[in-house]
Amino acid sequence: MRLQALCLFLISASIIHVEAQTTTPPTVSLLSGAIRLARDGVSSSSYSSGRVQVYGIGAANSISNRWGNICRFTSFGTSEADVICHQLTYTGASSHSYAEIDSFGNDNYTALLNDVSCSNDNYLMLFQCTVSTTVSTLCTAREDVSVTCYSTRIWDDPYNGMVRLSQGDYVNTGLLEVYCKGEWGTVCDNTFGAEEGTAV
């Protein structure tokens, strides 16, 4: 198979490897911090509202390498919902709720987080906020949070130098792209390393 360009495939802010771009995109594994939305236990990248599910929080062990929910106790509010929607590439949250009163149904996951607190609603990733992986016994399935995001995407009004990750299974994985002179383009450089990945 003839190789095309060498392009960088990133997972979140950590560089994994330089991948030869072919007709088949590389397969990547999930990393701690991926977020998705679900309705009636079924997740979809097309949802802009639903039950918040987060992957692999805490230490790198078999207990944390799974999907789970976020408990609303004790500080979940508008700022935290905004940050979750930002991580999902939306411009913010129009509302937030929890399982006892929302219409998104239940799933089979337990809570991985509570005491989520974001001091700045402009954060782009949940783990810029403070979280607790010691989940309160008050955190039953009825307390799992949900969000409804605005339908507009962060990328709808890009500026020169804006970066994004595309073609990934989740929004914290994908091919690094930069917006320049009216179009999105990939970053191809075999000297790209961990320091540059962290900067992204």
Automatic annotation (TrEMBL):
Gene3D superfamilies: SRCR-like domain
Keyword Transcription regulation (UniProt): no
Keyword Disulfide bond: yes
Domain of life: Eukaryota
UniProtKB keywords: Disulfide bond, Signal
PROSITE patterns (alphabetical): SRCR_2 (PS50287)
Span of the signal peptide: 1-20
Residues annotated as domain SRCR: 35-150, 163-200
GO cellular component: membrane
InterPro entries registered for this protein in UniProt: SRCR, SRCR-like_dom_sf
Pfam families: SRCR
Protein name: SRCR domain-containing protein
